[in-house]
Structure formats: C-alpha cells, structure tokens
Amino acid sequence: MDSHALALVDPEAKLQPSPPAQFGGTVMSIATISSGFEKGDFLVREEKGQRVYFDFFEEVFNYIAYKGYIRMKGDDEKEWLDTMNNVHASVKGGMKYNTGKLLMVLYKPLASEEDRGSYGN
After folding, report:
1. Threshold 0.85, pTM exceeds
2. Any bridge partners for residue 30, and if so which?
3. Cα-based angle 10, 84, 30 (whole degrees, multiple of 5)
4. Cα(104)–Cα(35) distance, rounded to whole angstroms?
5. How far apart are CA 60 and CA 96, in angstroms?
6. How far out from the chain centre does Cα 68 lie?
7. What are the helix (H) ranges across 35-112?
8. Is 12 helix (H, G, I), strand (E, B) or coil?
9. Which segment, 13-17, 20-24, 42-46, 114-118, is predicted with the most confidence on average?
10. CA torsion angle for 77, 75, 15, 120 (degrees, to 10)?
11. Are 29 and 107 in contact (CB under 8 A)?
C-alpha cells in the first residue's frame, strides 16, 4: 500500500505520485464525516481541528458542499479510512475521546503547483 496516506504514518513508505487527474501536485485539505456522538448524530472534522456536529446527514452534506469539499473516490477514500482507523487503534488503552464511526473522507484542493509558483524553491 504505497500512498500519500500511508506516508503520513510510515516515513519509510515509498511515496507514489497520484494520477494527475486526481490530486497530482495539488495541495489539499481533508475533512471527515463520522457518526455516533451525543452532541449530534454526525460530526464533520475539518481544517485546523474544527469540529461541527449535525443531527441530519442532509445538513452535513450542505455544509461540506458549501465549503468546497469533494468525496474521495474508491481506493483513495478506503486508504484514508484504513489509515485513520489504524492510527486510532494504535493508541495504547484506546483514544481519550470518542472517535465515532468514520463514514467518509473528503478533500478540498487548496493550491496547485502552478498556483503556488516558485516560492519556497
């Protein structure tokens, strides 16, 4: 499983470039949708640790769509789901907070290599 998600938790993993049509050289932000909380049935976790609770999935969908997030496709989403579940499971004694059941992973392109130009190089 050589991927961007795996590279976050395994520095020895070989990073394979994503197909250009998918993420290519695009900087992205991810968001997740989980269920199973007291404050609301659904939770969106997004940029800068922001957490927003909702009672209905339609509210989640409208919120996430308005923010510009797109659901990851098939294998990419599965890979992120597996990675996050493995990270949560690796915490000795369990996670301090209820992580709920992870349902979806979404992404939002922030800037492509062309948009970033050559700053930092």
Report:
1. no
2. 107
3. 100
4. 10
5. 25
6. 13
7. 57-66, 74-89
8. coil
9. 42-46
10. -40
11. yes
